[in-house]
From TrEMBL:
Gene3D superfamilies, alphabetized: Vaccinia Virus protein VP39 (3.40.50.150)
E.C. no: 2.1.1.360
Name used for this protein in its record: Histone-lysine N-methyltransferase, H3 lysine-79 specific
The species this protein was found in: Puccinia striiformis
Comp. bias intervals (Polar residues): 54-65
Domain DOT1 residues, every copy: 285-614
Chief location of this protein within or outside the cell: nucleus
PROSITE patterns found in the cross-reference section: DOT1
Pfam entry (one): DOT1
Length: 618
């Protein structure tokens, strides 16, 4: 029999086996169903959440707007002081930016205006310099023409003078004068940068050029101009004056026209220019001397060989006009070529004896030559030391003033001063009148000067003018004697006054006491001596009587124009006896015209008056 407990146990085991066999499918089904449940659940959840997404976004946007509104309201609720501060800072920033902009614009405008002004001033200065040079060249030519109407004082001019240059004579050259004050000068010729090959000077070296004088001597001239327009010395103008003087007086009209295509300044008549080659100007120093050319103004051409280099022949170009043109254009290369041509021609005329002949033909020294020599001397000696003439008490008897050369020449002709006579200048200053009289007249000229500064310059001028006259221009002059002394006390004054034919006294600012002392000196003068003064010694109302019988003025008379033995310029004669007028620009202290006075020692009236008194008493 079967045990009932075993039967139940077996049934349970069978049941467990069946369950294990069925579990995979159950598990699979369960998993699938679970997935379905989860998917269904997720789908349901998404479907439930989808409607809620839009409200959330709107809520977020609303919150953002609210935040912005709150911040805006917060800013709106900013304190008034803060608003004021912000506005002030903003205004300050705007103003600062505007000020910066205005300043920048102002600086830019100022720089532009300054550049424009500088260029305008430079252009104006250039035009002014060119204009001044044009005027000076024109004036120089007109002056040389006008000088020909002035009578030349007859005298030998070269009998004691070598007509060749004197070696080792110490003269003040234009180059030395400029170098002593180089910072006051600047370059003039600037267009050579377009043709640096033909410009013979290095960039850092001042351009200088040699010019030959009528004796064969030469001088070095810097091609510079003064920075200050008021400076008197201009080396380029000095150079041009040398050339103009040489062409006017040392060449014949035919030579001036033939070699330089210039109508001669003396006659202002243009002669026909015959184009000729000039081989003599291109020869080597060892070559033979060419045939001399005629010094007359013949219409025939000089006999000269051909030039090896035709480009050196500049005879077809009017020299002075072309020099002026090259200065205007600042064309230094052309200027140098023209000066080179001038030097070649002058050298040839010297070697052929033409200029020597011309010098020996002078019957006197033309005023144009004397003024050139005097001007060169003054520029080199007095100009750099002008401070020696300053510092004297105003309107005292020692105030310095000059009579200009054209005025002195008129005085020389008025008093008919001649070679062999003696001229005395009481208060001769820098000696310019004494030296001009010695040069222009050829007579002995004596000057007395008390002041140290002018006396020193007078001595230097004496050496320079003698050297220039002899060595550069081939001329002699009368012996000048310059003495530093008080003419009211020095015994030598009386010695010279007793011999004097003409006495000059620049007493424009002399005191009455000094004029009285001077009049006492006139008692030493010989009969017929002429006294020229800037203030009268004898008035028009002076009449001889017993009270003034012993006055030194009793021996003086005032000549009328009818009693003058020489012809004078009509602008210098006044209707009042002994009173003459000088033209404008004749003295250093004014540009206006003025009066000067002439007295003559004439004792005949005094002798006659004394005779009348004796006869009346007897």
């Amino acid at each position: 029999m079967t045990d009932p407990r075993l039967t139940k146990q077996n049934q349970k085991q069978k049941q467990n086996i069946t369950i294990r066999k069925l579990s995979p499918s159950i598990s699979t089904s369960t998993t699938t169903n679970s997935k379905r449940i989860k998917l269904s659940t997720r789908t349901t959840t998404e479907e439930e959440e989808l409607p809620r997404t839009k409200p959330n976004q709107e809520l977020t946007s609303t919150k953002t707007q609210e935040t912005t509104r709150i911040k805006t309201a917060e800013r709106t609720r900013t304190k008034p002081e803060e608003l004021t501060r912000i506005k002030t800072e903003e205004t300050t920033r705007i103003k600062t930016a505007e000020i910066t902009r205005i300043k920048t614009a102002e600086r830019t405008r100022t720089k532009t205006e300054e550049t424009t002004r500088t260029k305008t001033e430079e252009t104006t200065r250039t035009h002014e310099i060119t204009k001044n040079q044009d005027n000076e060249i024109e004036t120089r030519t007109l002056n040389h023409q006008d000088y020909q109407s002035h009578p030349i004082i007859p005298r030998p001019t070269s009998s004691l003078t070598p007509t060749e240059s004197i070696p080792r004579r110490k003269l003040i050259s234009s180059s030395k004068l400029v170098n002593s004050n180089r910072n006051s000068f600047k370059l003039w010729f600037t267009n050579h940068s377009f043709d640096p090959i033909n410009w013979p000077f290095k960039p850092k070296i001042d351009p200088q050029i040699r010019v030959i004088y009528p004796t064969g001597a030469h001088e070095l001239f810097p091609l510079l101009v003064p920075k200050n327009e008021n400076d008197e010395y201009r080396p380029i103008d000095d150079l041009l004056n040398v050339i103009t003087t040489t062409l006017t007086y040392y060449l014949t009209p035919h030579q001036s026209s033939h070699f330089f295509s210039e109508p001669h300044p003396i006659t202002s008549i243009s002669t026909t220019n015959t184009q000729t080659n000039f081989n003599f100007l291109n020869r080597k120093p060892a070559s033979t001397t060419p045939e001399p050319t005629s010094s007359s103004s013949s219409s025939s051409s000089p006999k000269i060989p051909n030039l090896n280099d035709p480009s050196l022949d500049l005879s077809s170009k009017p020299l002075l006009k072309e020099l002026t043109k090259s200065i205007k254009r600042k064309n230094g290369i052309e200027f140098i070529k023209l000066i080179g041509w001038y030097n070649r021609v002058i050298k040839h005329l010297i070697e052929t004896g033409s200029i020597r002949t011309q010098i020996r033909s002078f019957t006197g020294i033309p005023q144009g030559i004397s003024e050139t020599i005097i001007g060169q001397t003054y520029d080199r000696v007095v100009g750099p030391s002008i401070e020696l003439l300053q510092g004297y008490e105003t309107w005292s008897s020692n105030v310095y003033g000059e009579l200009k050369p054209n005025f002195v020449s008129e005085i020389i002709r008025l008093v008919d001063l001649k070679p062999g006579q003696i001229f005395v200048d009481l208060g001769s200053g820098i000696g310019n009148i004494v030296l001009q009289v010695a040069l222009e007249v050829g007579c002995l000229a004596v000057g007395f000067e008390i002041m140290d500064g002018p006396a020193v310059l007078a001595s230097k001028q004496q050496r320079e003018i003698i050297g220039r006259s002899h060595a550069l221009w081939g001329l002699n002059l009368g012996p000048p004697i310059l003495i530093k002394a008080d003419f009211t006390k020095d015994s030598r004054v009386g010695q010279w006054l007793r011999q004097a034919d003409v006495v000059l006294v620049n007493n424009q600012v002399f005191t009455p006491d000094l004029n009285e002392s001077l009049s006492l000196l006139f008692l030493e003068l010989k009969e017929g001596t002429k006294i020229v003064s800037l203030k009268p010694f004898i008035s028009t109302s002076f009449k001889l009587n017993q009270r003034n019988l012993d006055s030194p003025l009793a021996i003086l008379t005032r000549p009328t124009s009818s009693t003058m033995t020489t012809s004078t310029s009509t602008t210098m004669i006044s209707n009042t006896p002994g009173v003459f007028r000088y033209p404008p620009n004749s003295v250093s202290w004014t540009d206006n015209p003025g009066e000067f006075f002439l007295s003559v020692v004439d004792r005949s009236k005094l002798i006659q008056f004394q005779s009348t008194l004796i006869s009346d008493t007897s």
